[in-house]
Design brief:
The complex is a heterodimer of chains A (about 300) and B (about 290).
Chain A (H helix, E strand, L loop, with lengths): L1 H26 L7 H17 L5 H20 L1 H4 L2 H21 L16 E2 L2 E2 L2 H24 L1 H11 L1 H6 L4 H27 L9 H14 L6 H15 L7 H15 L10 H10 L10
Antiparallel strand pairs in A: 1-2
Chain B lengths: L1 H31 L6 H19 L2 H27 L5 H22 L15 E3 L2 E3 L1 H23 L1 H11 L1 H6 L4 H27 L8 H14 L4 H21 L6 H15 L9
Antiparallel strand pairs in B: 1-2
The chains are: A mainly alpha (about 300), B mainly alpha (about 290).
Chain lengths: ~300, ~290
């Protein structure tokens, strides 16, 4: 039981970060391969504020989110200048540089990382793992709600417009600058939130937890589930979180199966499981018999 | 002073190796516009196949061409089965597929050859000599000579032959080139053959230079070479070579003389971000 709770906590934390990445990549169409950097910034910020400055998790959280938002804004600035491939490489570079800063600055504990991060208290009650899972699920629900609301706001709609055609969007009076930056800030705030939860869950963090492979696995979740869909990142996080546990006996081939799955998915189904024209959606439509008339030939 | 010269020689060798790996990436980006991260996987496979053939036959004369052929075939297979069908999607789709492919190749190396560090005990038949009290080892001369030969060969192929003309035409506009009678599929195949064969050569050279071959040897080159083709100017082969050699020298000097609490691996990315912000076309980019 405790094992299942631990798996569920990790999945829900990763799902929060993946939802954040989905806002940047799926909604605003800005490719980011450095999301783990912001996950790490959230984790380190919360760890430093609680261990060194003596704040509680709840006292630190607003500051952590503010730091993530400011750094998301600053590092979102390159996205205004570079596009697509260049942006992807820039974000990879940001990930490597942030990881190097954590690893080589004495202030961040260098290779030893930061230990002794306190547990979370709610109303004076120390959270055990079950209650922590409840808290993570609460934040996950909040994240999904905000994502859903965002797609209904003016900022969200302008993100969609910029994703589809930046030139056309700006000729209609939509500011691509504002749309992209709002997506970056929202996405990195969610990553920061996930990072803070992660730090207080594992209670010991080091730079290696936030390396480029973590960014890839977050990207895999979004791609697998379906970019730009509301539930896709959650589905991706659940599948990629459960698979390694199911394949435990095949632990030696785990990374291989992981990369094979990602390759097959992006090669044959770039829209993801819940994306448009995906086989899941097509099968679902066939079952329910809905929308048959609208889409010819499906 | 002597130390400085030795550092410069080492830096030049590291830069030459970067250049050999980055060339393939620059060629592929120039022609297909794809960031071929899996190229570093091909490079690691090249080192492993080279080592395997060397331990079977005992001679590099068989190991080097054999590994180059295997990698060339692997490169063309990647292009045909993964990249070509994905060209119609936005650029992040082939990029992610390439990263997945790279991780897969790395895992195949680990599963087949084991996770341990292997040694590559081959000796390269190149002379060693001493200039002004500085010893230049035979591996160093080997790295310089091989790089020089590859560069001259590539320069000759791309500028003096009809095939090179077709290649340059296809990299400017593949559709127009095809309509003028260039067999673009063949040009793309050949680009992957050349790039992947050079990667295999680089893998074997690195294996001998450091006397080690291991599954994750492609990990740093995979992303560092991306930074290098940006700094050099996307798709510009001379720019990629220039950026590689500058980075090799810069890294060694930084480690040797400056006491900066920054790993050498972050230097490439910092240089890249600076270049992207100030001169997005790179050192020798077009336009």
């Amino acid at each position: 039981m405790d094992y299942l709770v631990n798996v569920a906590i990790v999945i829900s934390i990763q799902a929060i970060a993946a939802c954040g990445l989905n806002v940047i990549v799926g909604y605003a169409g800005q490719i980011s391969l450095g999301h783990a950097a912001f996950f790490g910034i959230g984790a380190y910020a919360s760890a430093m504020l609680t261990t060194k400055a003596g704040l509680t998790f709840w006292g630190a959280l607003p500051l952590v989110l503010l730091i993530a938002a400011i750094l998301g804004f600053l590092l979102g600035l390159p996205s205004l200048r570079v596009k697509e491939d260049f942006l992807a490489i820039t974000t990879i570079g940001i990930n490597f540089i942030v990881e190097a800063v954590f690893l080589y600055t004495p202030f961040f504990g260098k290779a030893l990382g930061i230990g002794g991060i306190p547990r979370i208290y709610v109303f004076g009650q120390r959270l055990n793992n079950q209650m922590l899972l409840g808290l993570c699920l609460f934040f996950l629900a909040l994240t999904l709600l905000i994502c859903w609301r965002f797609t209904r706001t003016w900022a969200g709609l302008s993100c969609f417009a910029v994703r589809e055609n930046e030139t056309a969007a700006s000729s209609m009076g939509i500011s691509p600058v504002r749309a992209k930056l709002s997506a970056f800030v929202i996405g990195t705030v969610f990553a920061g939130l996930a990072g803070a939860l992660y730090a207080h869950y594992v209670r010991f963090i080091s730079a290696g937890d936030f390396g480029f492979p973590v960014s890839i696995s977050m990207m895999s979740m979004v791609v697998l589930g379906g970019m730009g869909t509301l539930w896709g990142p959650l589905l991706g996080a659940v599948i990629l979180g459960i698979l390694p546990e199911v394949f435990r006996p095949l632990i030696d081939y785990r990374m291989f199966l992981y990369s094979l799955l990602l390759l097959l998915m992006i090669r044959f189904q770039p829209g993801g499981l819940l994306g448009e024209h995906s086989f899941v959606r097509t099968a679902f439509r066939g079952l329910t018999g809905k929308e048959k008339g609208g889409v010819a030939g499906v | 002073m002597q130390l400085l010269f030795e550092q410069l020689l080492n830096g030049l060798a590291i830069g030459s190796i970067y250049a050999l790996i980055t060339l393939g990436l620059a060629l592929v980006y120039g022609i297909l516009g794809i960031l071929h991260v899996a190229h570093a996987g091909v490079y690691a496979v090249g080192a492993y196949v080279g080592l395997w053939l060397y331990s079977l036959s005992g001679t590099l004369l068989l190991a080097i061409p054999g590994s180059m052929i295997v990698c060339a075939a692997l490169g063309v297979a990647i292009e045909r089965f993964v990249y070509f069908p994905l060209l119609k999607y936005p650029p992040y789709v082939p990029l992610i597929s390439s990263i997945a492919l790279f991780l897969g190749l790395e895992e195949v190396c680990r599963i087949v050859a084991g996770p341990d560090l292997l040694t590559f005990p081959a000796h390269l038949p190149f002379p060693s000599f001493t200039v002004g009290g500085v010893f230049v080892s035979s591996t160093l001369t080997a790295v310089y000579s091989v790089t020089a030969i590859v560069l001259v060969f590539l320069w000759f192929v791309t500028t003096k032959t009809e095939f090179g003309l077709a290649m340059r035409a296809a990299s400017q506009d593949m559709e127009v080139a095809s309509s003028l009678g260039v067999d673009s599929q063949r040009v793309v195949d050949a680009t992957f053959v050349i790039g992947s064969a050079i990667a295999a050569l680089a893998g074997i050279l690195v294996g001998i230079y450091y006397n080690q071959v291991y599954p994750t040897m492609g990990a740093m080159p995979a992303y560092k070479t991306l930074a290098l083709i940006v700094v050099g100017g996307m798709g510009s082969a001379p720019g990629a070579v220039l950026a590689s050699i500058l980075l090799g020298l810069g890294e060694t000097l930084l480690i040797g003389f400056a006491n900066i609490p920054m790993p050498r691996d972050a230097l490439a990315f910092i240089a890249m971000i600076v270049v992207l912000m100030w001169k997005p076309t790179g050192l020798l980019g077009r336009k």
